[in-house]
Amino acid sequence: MVIYVDADACPVKSEVERVGTRHRVAMAMVSNGGIRPSQNPLIDTVIVAEGPDEADKWIAARAGAGDVVITNDIPLAALCVAAGAQVLRPDGQELTPRNIGSILATRDLMADLRAADPFHKGGGRGFTRADRSRFLDALERALRRAARPG
Length: 150
What we know:
Structural class: alpha/beta
Strand order of the largest sheet: 3-2-1-4-5-6
Largest sheet: 6 strands, mixed
Distance between the termini: 13 Å
Radius of gyration: 15 Å
Strand content: 15-25%
Order of helices and strands: EHEEHEHEEHH
């Protein structure tokens, strides 16, 4: 079991480290750079080549059944779900075979709408303490499920 973190803009890296360490699970913090390597022996800091989606490609090539992936990137999440990994967003939302299709379709629709409206200045809502709490609960559940045999 490995926890893979799409770490470039991940707001819950310290929470992943705390929970992963408590469960004694290997973690891979994957980014294009700009994050400090951890002294934690359970954490592998992986710096991939510059370029779009390089961290995503690295994670997608390795994540599979029994692993947990933390990402806000929906296409990466879809690949990891298809490979059998458990996927969590930093706000605690679980991405599963049951919901990833509709989430991916919504993402694509929103991208099309933004492209059609050059004056759209939207953005997501801010990350809250409630999001962080939901994430911690979801990560605990995911690690317990991943540790179960079978």
